[in-house]
Amino acid sequence: MTSLITHTAAMVALHTLNVISTDLKTTNSRVSTGLRIATARDSAAYWAIATTTQSDTGALTTVQDALAIGRATIDVVYTGLDSTRESLQTMKELLVAARQPGVDRTNVQTQIAGLQTDMQNKADAAVINEQNFLSVDSSAAGYNATKSVVAAFERSASGIAISTIDLDISSIALVDPAGGTAAGLLDKDRTVGGTTDNVLAIDISALTDSAADLTTLEEYIGIVDAALIDVIDASNTAGTVLARTDSQNAFISALIDANARATGALIDADMEEESTRLAALQTQQQLSVASLSIANASATSVLALFS
């Protein structure tokens, strides 16, 4: 039976063509964007997970930047401490040489004074990002001895957390005008035997070969040696923090890569599969158009009955 009112064959062919056109549009979108899930309507759950992960990846990238700045800051600290260690070693050697009776201690003091000025200058110049951890004023308003480097961004069921790598600069500062027990490693008064002085204030120019002065000279050597040991410990502390920042930076890089892979697994399109599907759908579309044309043409055959 052929009906002019309800053309079943044409309706089926048109429905098939619409379905194929919809699938073709979806596949074209995946091929052009490279994404299997581009919006929430494609898959609300996967899109939400992927978008959150991408947001966290952006935060981790910022953590990497913070680690880079923090590492540069600590590297300046370590360099300043290491240079100071060398100066203290030289100063110690000069004092040992000055212990020899008959040595012109005025000339030796000239060299020592140069080292003292040099160490003070190094402490003052160890500045990066407007921060100086070697020359500090612990009496200043808002002073905080704990300096932190942002090291991680963490998401858990309880919320967001930021982890840091901390450095207590009260144990590594070289100079501190606050003085007293809070003074730095170089300007802190130390007592060895009957002599109390700090590294930056030592002056041997007036010492003679008397027994008392030679004893004082030996005690100066003890003061410098104690400061040298403290600077070595401070260098070790700074070096440990440097190693931690390097390790954390490597971990953050690996985490960013893992997040990218996880996101890709959720929303990226399989281009080989999509290209094959695209070719198949284009063929199906052509066949559906032909089928619809045949279905429409069948109705015109009814005219032959009236001719």
In short:
The protein has helices at 8-33, 44-98, 105-125, 211-267, 271-300; strands at 127-128, 131-132, 146-156, 159-168, 190-192, 195-197.
How would you sum up the global shape? Answer: rod-shaped
CATH topology: f41 fragment of flagellin, N-terminal domain
How many separate domains make up the residues? 1
The biggest beta sheet is recorded as:
2 strands, antiparallel
Order of helices and strands: HHHEEEEEEHH
Rg from Cα: 39 Å
Q: Give helix % range.
A: 55-70%
CATH superfamily: f41 fragment of flagellin, N-terminal domain
InterPro entries: Flagellin, Flagellin_C, Flagellin_N
Domain Flagellin C-terminal: 221-306
Organism: Acuticoccus mangrovi
Domain Flagellin N-terminal: 6-135
How would you explain this protein's 3D organization?
The protein has one domain (44-267): f41 fragment of flagellin, N-terminal domain (Up-down Bundle). The model has no long low-confidence stretch (mean pLDDT 86). Helix 1 (8-33) runs antiparallel to helix 5 (271-300), helix 2 (44-98) runs antiparallel to helix 3 (105-125) and helix 2 runs antiparallel to helix 4 (211-267). With 307 residues, the protein is mainly alpha-helical. It has helices at 8-33, 44-98, 105-125, 211-267, 271-300, and strands at residues 127-128, 131-132, 146-156, 159-168, 190-192, 195-197. It has a two-stranded antiparallel ribbon with strand order 1-2. A two-stranded antiparallel sheet has the order 3-4. Residues 6-135 form the Flagellin N-terminal domain.
